[in-house]
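Hi there, hope your week has been kind to you so far. Please have a think about how the structure follows from the sequence. I've dropped the whole record in just underneath, so have a look:

_____
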Amino acid sequence: MTEYHHIFLALPDIYRDAGPFALKELASKKEGRRNLLVLPAAFDKIMREHQGGRVTINEIEKKSRPGSPHLLNKREAEKYIQKNPELNESVLTIRYSDSLDIAFQRGSSIDEITDHKVEEIFTRIGKRWTINEKNKPKLVTSDPSMHLRFRAMGLVTELPGFLTPKSDTVHEGLILGNEKIQSELHQNGGKISVEDASEILERERGLYPNQFIYFRGQTKEYAVVLGNIVRNKSGSRILQMDNLELRLLKPEEYSKKLKIGQQYHEGLLGIKPRDMEQYLALQYGVLNPDIELFFICGGQGSGKTILSYPGAIELILRYNEKQNKKRGLHESQESFYKQVLITKPTDIIGGRSRELGFLPGSLYEKMLPHLAPFEDAHNKTTLTNHLDFEDMFRHGKRNSRYGPRRGFNGKIENIAELPEGHAITFENTGYIRGRSISDTIIIVDEAQNLSPYEIKTIIERTGEHTKLILLGDPLQVDRGTIERNGLTWAMAHYLQQPYSGGIYLPHNYRSQMSDDARELFAFSDGS
C-alpha cells in the first residue's frame, strides 16, 4: 500500500480562494514523496464554480476512466477493506501528478457536510490509507472558526501557507535598516552589494529588486535596491535584474521633485508628495517605466488614491513631439499608456456579490458611489479647472456606454491633451476574466477585499505594456483576514520579481479623529 507523506482534506474555502492552484500547492514538494488529497464528492460543485476556466474536474474525470493509467490498482485496497467492512464505500484513487494522488469519495451534498461527517471522513482516512508515521491526516482551511471547531474534536488542522502569508508582508517593500549598514553605505560611495547588505541585515530571504530601506536618525535617509535590467530580445519583458546594489538616494531627491525623463516637476497636476514615502511611491513606482506591478499600501488618509490617480493620468496625457522627447518617449509614442482602467470589489452596488445588478441609470451612474475616492482626487488636481470627473470616462469623439462624448479636446495645462478615446474606463472585477488588457494602467482599489484567486485572475489578464497598481490596507479587510486576502497574497508572491515593487505609506493626513479611529476595535463582518 502506498505510504503518503501527507494526507489532506481541504475544505471548500481553499478551492474558492485558490482555484486549481490549490492542487499544485497541496502536492508534495519533497522529491520522491507523494501526498494524498481526499476529495468528497460534495466539494465538486465548489471546484467547478471556481476552476477559473481551467478543466480541473474534467482532468480528474478523464484520469478516472476505466483503463486509464492514472486510475490506481484497487486490489490491495479491496483486500484491506474486506478486513474492515465499515470502509466498504465507493472511492476512486487517482494519480493526479507524480506528487499528488486524489481520493474521490462518494458523499453527501455540500450542505450536509457537518462536523460529524468530517470526523467520520477522518476516521476512514486513518483506516484506509497509510501515512508517514511522523504525520497525521490534516484538515486544511483558512477559516479560523473551522480550526477551533475541528481542533476541539481532536483533529489536526493546518493553515494553507500558500494562501496565508505573514501579516507584515505589506511592510516588506520598505524595511528598517541599521547603523552598521548605513555606515557601510557612506564609506563606499553610497552603494554596496546586495549580498553584503543582506548579510549585515541578517535577512535569510535576502533583499530583492526595487526594495527600499530607511534609516532613523536626525536626518532620515533612504536607500533602494537597483541593478541592471535584463529584457528579452523584443524588449517587452523584464527577465531579471543583475548586479544588484543597495544605493542611497541622491541628496537632491529629498526635495521630492519628480523626474520624468529629463524633466523635473514640483508635482503632478497640482499634487505634490507630502513625505518621502509618497515621493518613493510616485518616483520609483507609479512613474517608473520599468515597474509593471506596484503595491501602494497604507491606512486611511495615507495618500494611496491621491498619488495613484494624478500619477496615472500624467502617463496617459499626450504632449507634443519636443516634450515627449524630454519625457523619454520613443518617436512612435504619443504617451506612455493609452488609458487608465479602474477596478475594485463592488459587492454592494446591487444584485449578487461581485455583480452590478439591475440598478437604474447609466454604467457611470451605477459606478459613481464606488468611484468617490477617485472623484475626490480628481477635484484636488488642476484637471478640475478643465473638465469634470465624469468627462474622464466619456469618449472624445462619440457616444458610449458612459454617456455622450465629452466634447472637450482642448489642452490640459496648455501643453497636454487627453487621449482621443476614454481617458478612464471602469470594469467590475467579475467581468475582467477572458480579457487581455494592453497599453493600459490598471488601478485595483481596495485590493485587500479581493480573494487571492481574483487577484491572480486580474494579473493573468495583463498584456504587453501594461502597468498594474494595487491599492489597499489589510487592516480594513471586509473579506478574509489580515493575512489571508488578495493583497498580501500577491505581495508575498510578486515582491521579489524584478518588475515589481511596493511601499507602505505610514502617515494619515486626515484629522486626529480619523487617526484615533484606526485604533478602535470595530470591524465589518463582510455582510
About this structure: Residues 79-88, 348-354, 521-527 have pLDDT under 50 and may be disordered. The CA atoms of residues 343 and 429 lie 6 Å apart. The domain at 3-158 is CATH 3.40.50 (Rossmann fold). The two ends are 47 Å apart (CA to CA).
